[in-house]
Amino acid sequence: MDIKEYISSGIIEAYVMGLASEEEVRILECIQTHSPEVKQAILDAQSILEDFASREAIAPPPALKSAIWAKLQEESTDYAANMSNDELLSKQEALSHVQVETEPPTSSTPLYPSVVTESHQSPLKWYAIAASVLLIASIGLNLYLNGTQNNIKAELATLSNAQNTNEIAFNNLQRKWEMVNNPAIKAIPLAGVEKHPDMKAMVYFEKQSNEVYLTLENLPKAPQDQQYQLWAIVDGKPVSLGVFDQDSTTAVQKMLTVNAAQAFAITLEKRGGSPTPTMENMYVMGKV
Amino acid sequence: MNNQIKLSEQEIVLLLLQQNENGFNYLYDNYSAAIYGVISKVVAEREYADEVLQDVFVKIWKNIKQFDPEKGRLYTWMINLARNTAIDFIRSKGFQNEQKNQSIPEFVNDSEKYATNLKVDHIGMKEVLLQLKQEWRELIELAYFKGYTQQEIAERLDIPIGTVKTRTRNALIELKSLLKDYS
After folding, report:
1. CA of B109 to nearest chain A CA: how many angstroms apart?
2. Residue B96 to residue B20: CA distance in whole angstroms
3. Which label site among A41, A97, A265, B88 has the fewest CB atoms less than 10 Å from its CB?
4. How many Cβ atoms sit within 10 Å of the Cβ of residue A8?
5. Measured between CB atoms, does A73 come within 8 Å of chain B?
6. Which ipTM was obtained for this model?
């Protein structure tokens, strides 16, 4: 029998109608994996029955939908009761790694059981129930612990952020404190000029090494494209001591060294600094 | 769920595997009527059909992992699941006993009874099966909706087994051309 004869023998129609014997089904399923023609013939025959079902569709009573959904929810929780202890243990283990997963088929339930068997008397059922209670408790505990752990992690992150900020502030303060208490260092307050009377900065000048440190006490945060630039007035001429490039306005920054400055001043310049100060943007100034 | 969304069978299977509620909604909205139609052909009583529909959805839900796309479409799989569940239901002891208690004869002789059963028309359109020649109609009835074996059909209709197959083929070819007229 060639393939065309086989296809038109009626076996395919018998198969899709559920009439074929077990042996015929086995043979046909084997042939269809090797013969695209047979496979297509099966799909075609099945689509006739699909069209038939669509054509003869009857809408079920509307209330059934929610009833069925409720039943499915119930089934999902009952599901654990059908698992053996071993499966339960491995399930528990898997669950401790993954919170959401679909469960693998745990037993080969026949797709079309002709007799419904229920083991009401089986002691296994009670083990299963006990095991499922344990599973649920364990899942609950897992979720709880996981939730708690997440909270702690978030808290820790916040705290360590806060601590970093505090540490920076503390270091700045300590450096200022050291400078103020160092007799070799002279603290020079730079006061706001006429236009900006409230502004203030501090320059700490180390007389022996000529090192200059700057802190911005009360200057507004510089715009993104601009920076504060420190100038020393030496013999009446401004000498750049560099731009203040710290993120934190409370930071202490070491500037360039300078000999014999008579005064210090700060102007707002373009990012990176200017060769000469923009006088109308002078914010603070202080005499040594 | 938006009815306009069209999901592929593969996407539906994926949602069902995740036990996704939208997956259920989509499945129910798009397939429950066809499934209920199939069940109603096997189980005529409404209350029992409702019960079987519920069983079928539970089985789809639980057994979706066993669906093998290599062996055919999801729609066919669900239709067969519905058909087999319904046939199992009318063969179950409880149902048979109940029928006996109500002293309804199990089978009166045949074709007339089918014709009466099938006259009940749920959606106001003419039954497709009623338009088939009787020899094809009773074959589809016995095989597809009653779950009889070739042997049983051969005995019942008093025809050779070989004829059952050829008649099945012709019945399906005829059904196909009838359905074509509708679409």
Report:
1. 22
2. 37
3. A97
4. 13
5. no
6. 0.85
Per-residue CA distances from A194 to A197, A281, B138 (Å): 6, 12, 108
Q: How far apart are CA A104 and CA A102, in angstroms?
A: 7
Establish, for the pair of chains A and B, how many residue pairs have beta carbons separated by less than 8 Å: 160
For the ranges A91-105, A144-158, A159-173, A237-251, the lowest mean pLDDT is seen at: A91-105
**Pairwise pLDDT comparison (A46 vs A118), residue with the higher score:** A46
Residues of B in Cβ contact (< 8 Å) with A57: 33-34, 36-37, 123
A residues 7-36 near B, CB within 8 Å? 8-14, 16-19, 21, 29, 33
Cα separation, B38 vs B58, in Å, equals 16
Strand partners, A287: A263
Would you kindly state where each structural domain of chain A is located, as residue ranges? 3-55, 77-82+122-181, 184-287
Q: Which amino acid is at B99?
A: Q
The confidence score (pLDDT) of residue B127 equals 79
One of 3.40.50.1360, 1.10.1740.10, 3.40.430.10, 2.130.10.10 is the CATH number of B9-100, namely 1.10.1740.10
Instruction: Choose among A9, A68, A102: nearest Cβ to B57.
Output: A68
Strand pairing class (A212-218; A200-206): antiparallel
Length of chain A, in residues: 288
In chain A, where do the E strands start and end?
A: 185-192, 200-206, 212-218, 226-234, 237-243, 253-254, 263-270, 282-287
- Domain edges within chain B: 9-100, 107-182
Class of the A184-287 domain?
Answer: mainly beta
Between chains, do B53 and A42 touch, taking CB under 8 Å as contact?
no
Nearest residue to B40 (alpha-carbon basis) of B108, B111, B122: B122
What are the DSSP calls for A70-90, one per residue?
A: HHHHHHHHHGGGGS-HHHHHH
For an interface test with A, the pick among B1, B13, B19 (most A C-beta atoms closer than 10 Å) comes out as B19
Per residue in B150-166, pLDDT tens? 999 999 999 998 899 99
Looking at per-residue confidence, does A180 or A228 come out higher? A228
A77 burial class (0-12, 13-18, 19+ CB within 10 angstroms)? exposed
d(CA A70, CA B3): 22
Verify whether the Cβ–Cβ distance B63 to A18 is below 8 Å.
no
Alpha-carbon distance of A77 to B159, in angstroms, equals 51
In this predicted structure, the answer to whether residue B101 has a pLDDT above a threshold of 80 is no
Give the pLDDT confidence of B50-59 residue by residue, as tens digits: 999 999 999 9
